[in-house]
Amino acid sequence: MADETLWPLPKFYFKVTFSDLGEIACQEVSGLDVEAQVIEYRHGNSKEFSTIKMPGIKKYSNITLKKGVFKDDKKFWQWFNKIQMNTFERETVTISLLDESNTPAMSWSIKNAWPTKVTGTDFKSDGNEVAVETLEIAHEGITLVEK
Description:
By secondary structure, the protein is mostly beta strands. Helices cover 5% and strands 46% of the residues. The chain is built from 1 helix and 10 strands, in the order E-E-E-E-E-E-H-E-E-E-E. The strands form 2 sheets. Strands 1, 2, 3, 6, 7, 8, 9 and 10 form an 8-stranded antiparallel sheet that branches. It has a two-stranded antiparallel sheet with strand order 4-5. The longest helix is centred in the middle third of the chain and has 7 residues, at 75-81. It is extended and about 70 Å long. The relative contact order is 0.23.
């Protein structure tokens, strides 16, 4: 019997689900990263001529989603247009890496996400690419979902 953990999962089989908008078929997802800011400190009576480094506040990057443009599909734009002065609709976004049986092998939960930027497709008269729009979302944390 072959070990199921022998090969890494391919990154092309994934799904993106929003708490209110539902599942949206995306072409690309990027920005799933977190870093701990470094606090450098040196107390006054230290004999060392260097600082001590300690972990500080966690910092999350914005997440970028890219998807194909479909006729009458305005979900990204409608969500973005709900932003008004200090009023916006937050979503929980789940990004799942799927296995061969369409079951989430790993999932990341993005809390309190809201759109910061929507970019429509570019146009090129001699191109033959698919029209793609981009959504950038800010959020307040990424957690790996435990099974």
